[in-house]
Design brief:
The chain has about 575 residues and is mainly alpha-helical. It has helices at about 10-15, 20-45, 50-55, 80-95, 110, 135-145, 150, 195-205, 220-230, 295-300, 320-330, 335-345, 375-400, 405-415, 425-430, 430-440, 460-475, 505-525, 530-550; strands at about 270-275, 275-280, 280, 315-320, 490, 495-500, 565, 570-574. The longest helix has 27 residues, at about 375-400.
Length: about 575
């Protein structure tokens, strides 16, 4: 384990009794100013605190307003209700506290390589072969270890681009598990055959960005990619008959991923956005719009420079190839795809709701604030933010895995002889690498965005983490066996949607596929490894399951609990 975080002394400061903690000072800042203001106004005008409170929220209450006795209904009185609320919060916190603590192992690359070639370092200063300045890297490690905001301000940058939100790694979550209380498998190591196979897949994803999904069964480049990936000893993607095929290429490993079209229906069907039927046509980039294939550009971007701008197709299109998908996940907000899926699912009516929905068979009630649209939409948003906190802890404080973009530079310098690295020979001798060189004249990974990857470590994928969490709550609240009505696919040019004919597409399968599409869309852009996606989905799922566990005790309705199929195919009830 090589976990970074505040030192023991600093942890004691953070976890001290309330009179000595920074949290207590925050509480005083929030509540102390309110109470002081109330006391001052009370002394100055003789107006009651209760009246001030009401006025502060815009409710006009006059001193001479007649007061009447409370007319509250309910099974318990205020004091008892207050105690129930307290015990509910306390029991949820104790449940999370008493879970076993994980070990948080990493893959050992940071300690294995003194020059940090296996660790994330983008935006810090680098030498001519793209190896990070070790003093700058150590300053980053020191800041991560102390957790002190001032220490982050001393990190040397190589250019104008800043690191992305490293202090989010310390943020607490008050629903579900704390971000530091979740574990992940370590990612593949720098020199491993798994890393080699994942990099080959990324090269092929870059080379095939412009191939329409409908053409995968017959396209020769797709066939070459499937054959090459089948030759890797540790390729972890789905296979048929022992090998990678056009039907399994670039897909996920969860139930439903291999059924039907490559793209989920939730990224194609028109979304009922309130009273606005919204067509899911995207502003996409032009064919061949690839970046960082010239070494000077690659090195400049490692040092935090900005080079180039995307070239856009003037015509909006339905997502019909990987390039369109990469632009969707370039500009999406964290729960955008899940929000669209949720609105579509709600439009399907009661038959699409989970069988355990407490109002399905009620003669007098329907869901709204609980178990209705506001409830479900809120779930989608809240779990996405919690999943990002969990991902950022793993990224910055545990793994610090290098990005594929950085690894491409290692391969390039190794192949041309300006450096020597322990890279697995399967990638060095692959058809993928040769095809990239034949196309671009370097061994660098072609990127879909001129800025390359984001300025935070690779593992796990933030997109995979939040979409994994969102899809998990949708599977808990909707009927996974419900058949998607009137499925469609995008035409080769992306200008229209045409009827789909093929195996039945279910809500559960298409939600799993949606999660894979959002995750692997980031792979297709060159930003992430396959394992970033697969393990990120699991992390997001764990976050959502923890929140569902906490909230399952907060409802008054009779319902059997949240039932769903996990990404590994097992069914659970919370």
């Amino acid at each position: 384990m090589n976990k970074q975080g505040p030192t023991r002394q600093n942890q004691q400061t953070r976890e001290a009794p309330p009179s000595r903690t920074r949290e207590n000072s925050k509480e005083q800042a929030v509540f102390g100013s309110v109470l002081s203001r109330r006391a001052f106004l009370h002394r100055a005008s003789g107006v009651t605190v209760a009246t001030l409170t009401a006025n502060a929220f815009g409710v006009p209450i006059l001193d001479d307003t007649p007061r009447v006795a409370a007319a509250e209904l309910g099974p318990v009185k205020d004091k008892q209700r207050r105690q129930q609320a307290y015990h509910l919060r306390k029991e949820a916190a104790q449940f999370q506290r008493d879970l076993p603590l994980p070990a948080h192992p990493d893959n050992g690359d940071e300690t294995r390589y003194a020059n940090r070639i296996g660790s994330y370092s983008k935006a810090l200063p680098h030498n001519s072969v793209g190896e990070v300045d070790l003093n700058a890297y150590q300053t980053l490690i020191h800041a991560l270890a102390t957790g002190q905001p001032a220490d982050f301000e001393t990190i040397p940058l190589g250019g104008s681009v800043k690191l992305t939100s490293p202090q989010a790694a310390y943020a607490f979550a008050l629903e579900g598990p704390d971000s530091h209380h979740l574990d992940m498998l370590p990612p593949p190591a720098f020199s491993s055959p798994e890393e080699a196979a994942e990099m080959a897949e990324l090269y092929w994803q870059a080379l095939t960005r412009d191939v329409p999904f409908l053409d995968y069964p017959t396209d020769p480049l797709i066939s070459q990619a499937a054959t090459d990936l089948s030759s890797f000893s540790a390729f972890a993607g789905p296979k048929m008959g022992g090998g990678v095929t056009p039907q399994t290429l670039f897909r996920g490993n969860t139930p439903g991923d291999l059924t039907g079209p490559y793209l989920s229906q939730f990224l194609w069907l028109d979304v009922p956005y309130g009273a606005i039927p919204m067509a899911q046509q995207v502003r996409t980039t032009s064919p061949g719009d690839d970046y960082l294939t010239a070494y000077a550009d690659w090195l400049a971007v490692q040092n935090g420079a900005v080079t180039g701008t995307n070239q856009f197709d003037p015509t909006p299109r339905y997502i019909r190839n990987a390039r369109d998908l990469t632009e969707y996940v370039h500009l999406d907000f964290p729960y955008q795809a899940a929000l669209s899926a949720c609105l579509l699912l709600l439009s399907f009516g009661d038959d699409a709701l989970d069988a355990g929905h407490p109002y399905l068979h009620s003669a007098t009630q329907r869901g709204f604030v609980t178990f209705g649209a506001p409830h479900i939409l809120d779930f989608v948003a809240r779990v996405s933010q919690a999943a990002l906190k969990a991902a950022w802890y793993q990224k910055w404080l545990v793994h610090r895995r290098l990005r594929p973009e950085e690894f491409g530079g290692r391969i390039h310098n190794h192949k041309i002889g300006t450096a020597s690295y322990p890279i697995h020979p399967e990638i060095l001798n692959s058809d993928a690498l040769q095809a990239v060189f034949d196309t671009y004249g370097t061994y660098l990974l072609p990127m879909a965005y001129p800025e390359g990857c984001p300025t935070h470590p690779a593992y796990p994928s933030g997109h995979a983490s939040f979409v994994g969490a969102c899809v998990t709550v949708l599977k808990a609240l909707f009927n996974e066996a419900f058949v998607i009505p009137n499925p469609l696919v995008a035409s080769d040019d992306g200008l229209s949607l045409v009827p789909y004919s093929g195996p039945t597409l279910t809500v559960g399968g298409e939600l799993n596929k949606l999660a894979a599409n959002i995750g692997f869309g980031r792979d297709a852009a060159g930003l992430h490894w396959r394992s970033d996606i697969i393990e990120g989905l699991k992390l997001g799922e764990a976050v959502a399951l923890g929140i569902l566990t906490d909230l399952s005790a907060t409802y008054n309705e009779d319902f059997p609990g949240f039932t769903l199929t996990k990404f590994n195919g097992t069914t659970i009830t919370i």
